[in-house]
Each structure stands twice: as C-alpha cells, then as structure tokens.
Amino acid sequence: MSNPTLYINKINDSILFDEKNKEFTICDGSLGTYKFCDVVRSQIVYEHARYKGKSPLFSHRVLISTFNTSIFIELKKVYVGVEIELSNKGKAYIYIKKSGHST
User: Fold this and answer.
1) Is the CB of residue 51 less than 8 Å from the CB of residue 63?
2) How would you label 54-92 residue by residue, b for 16+ Cβ within 10 Å and e otherwise?
3) CA distance linking residue 96 with residue 46, whole number of Å
4) Which residue(s) pair with 77 in the sheet?
5) C-alpha 74: how far from chain center
6) What are the DSSP calls for 16-51, one per residue?
7) Which of 7, 2, 36 is nearest to 20 (CA)?
8) How far apart are CA 46 and CA 37, in angstroms?
9) Per-residue tens of pLDDT for the chain, all 103 residues
10) Residue 28: which of 50, 48, 7, 52 has the closest Cα?
11) What pTM was computed for the model?
C-alpha cells in the first residue's frame, strides 16, 4: 500500500500527477490542471524545433517512424511531447524534451 502523503509525481518538471485529487498539472505546454477522467487518449508527437514558441503548440509536426530512414528527417531538430485528447473535444500538449535534439 502506498503512503497517502506521497501522491504527487512529476516527469521532467513538465507534468505533475496528483493521485489524491485524480488530476494532473501541465507545467510546460498547455499550462493548466486537468482531471484524469477527462483524458480520452494520448500519443507521442514531435515538433520542428525552429517553430517552438512561434506558432500554436505542435502545429509543425515531424513524422517519425521505423520505416522513415531519410537523412532529411534524421537530421531535423525536434521537441518531443505528448498530445492528450480530452473528453470536451479539446487537446492539451506537454513538452517532455525541453531542448530540440536530433531524432
């Protein structure tokens, strides 16, 4: 049984999970607090590093797959994040990797 006083977990200072209140707070991305029960699905997304902060979150995505071995894609700088689809049909985004890196 887990200790009831230890209910907040964090990942890379990007998201805090509050298990006691069944909610999470995004600290880097779509800032705000969201309920666990509002999450419909999520996926990993990649954004061109040069567009971070200059356009809506993750609107300039890079498609990365095991079948794509193009040098062009491998040399791009990207930010790694998570797209969360919410029950109200909205989406929230979390930046997991804080600096652009090559894929």
Assistant:
1) no
2) eeebbebebebeeeeeeeebeebebbbbbbbebeeeeeb
3) 10
4) 102
5) 21
6) EEETTTTEEEESSBS-EEEEGGGEEEEEEEEEEGGG
7) 7
8) 25
9) 444 444 456 667 888 889 899 999 999 999 999 999 999 999 999 888 888 888 888 888 877 665 555 555 555 688 889 999 999 989 999 998 765 554 4
10) 52
11) 0.74
Q: Cα–Cα distance between 92 and 31 in angstroms, integer?
A: 8
Residue 99: DSSP 8-state: S
Report how far residue 6's alpha carbon sits from residue 43's, in angstroms, rounded to the nearest whole number.
27
Which residues does 10 contact at the CB level (< 8 Å), separation at least 6? 16, 17
Q: Quick one: tokens of 48?
A: 């061109």
Q: Please state the φ and ψ torsions of residue 99, each to the nearest 5 degrees.
A: -125, 145
